[in-house]
Amino acid sequence: MRLSVNCFGVxxxxxxxxLNLQTLSLTGWMVVEESSxxxxxxxxxxxxxxxxxxxxxxxxxxPLFIFEYFVGITLISLLLFLVYPFxxxxxxxxxxxYAFFIGYYIAGILPQxxxxxxxxxxxxxxxxxxxxxxxxxxxxIKRFLKAPDGHPDIYTIYxxxxxLEATWIxxxxxxxxxxxxLFYTLLxxxxxxxxxxxxxxxxxxxxxxxxxxxxxxxxxxxxRRTIIFMAMLAVISFFIFIxxxxxxxxxxxxxxxxxxxxxxxxGMAGRxxxxxYYGTALxxxxxxxxxxGNGIYAVETVSGTDYPEDNLHNLYMQVLIEFGVLGFILYxxxxxxxxxxxxxxxxxxxxxxxxxxxxxxxLIQFRGTDAMIWLFIGLFLKIESNxxxxxxxxx
Length: 395
Prior knowledge:
Structural class: mainly alpha
Helix content: 55-70%
Strand content: under 5%
């Protein structure tokens, strides 16, 4: 039993760490994130021999709504690929189901305290790496702050650039809601990094995590009163002592918030350029979809334009256009069931907050094949299932 626990504990720590090092492949750090198979893909295979060390009483029956979703989108895609081009993103969907199963299985063996401890240690390493590499990019940061435009040219350990890196560290901050001092320290670090990266979504995610932490059962009344007092003090200070218009002109990230949706907002302009053809593309498919990974192909076919993006920057729109109405319903059942469990937990489970923020952030990014999120979902569902089973036995 001890051997199996050690095996799964070491694996979870290492696998989660490698999932954060998304641009690391067998041949080294990748410049183009999609250009190679990642190191965590190969490492995940080590989970299979660990299964031989499992306790005899361990069971891992995947929840039916999860199983139906992955089977559904796989069959839908295979049928649609008879008409539309095959896209390898279907393989990514199968891999994230594997990541989900890994999390679900391990949470049936390791106690939740050990799981959170392992995730926190790996996340701390990631924070240290990200902060450390900023020192190597000081010349670029200085250049960007003097003449900001878009995002600074900084190498990231996450695929998708600085915006996604700010997103992921913001999500990882939720893992520390049960460690008050460390949580607020990392939250401040996340906000600073998001400002340096000029990442609006990074700032929004940081505040969403903080907001859910505020209403979480883990937050005491005294802590809530302190937060309210500090927030009111900050707001009053801003209005009395700070010229917001002048501040926004000096801090590029605030300026980007002020420009949201207007003609100078290049990020949203790129999204609107794609979204204007979305309805036509969906109608042409008879609401049946185009298959996994073919969301961009769909709007490009209708518009006659090649887009640099690899996703629609709205996960719900992407699920609908790739898997049709049926696939969309299956996904929304997943979102609904997980959200209900998260709210029933009174957000005392750090993973509940992290997953809920992901569902919200999916309105402006992500493409549904994020292995780290599905690992979290697997861990979360099994942890909550374990709690329910204990309550039934007690009653």
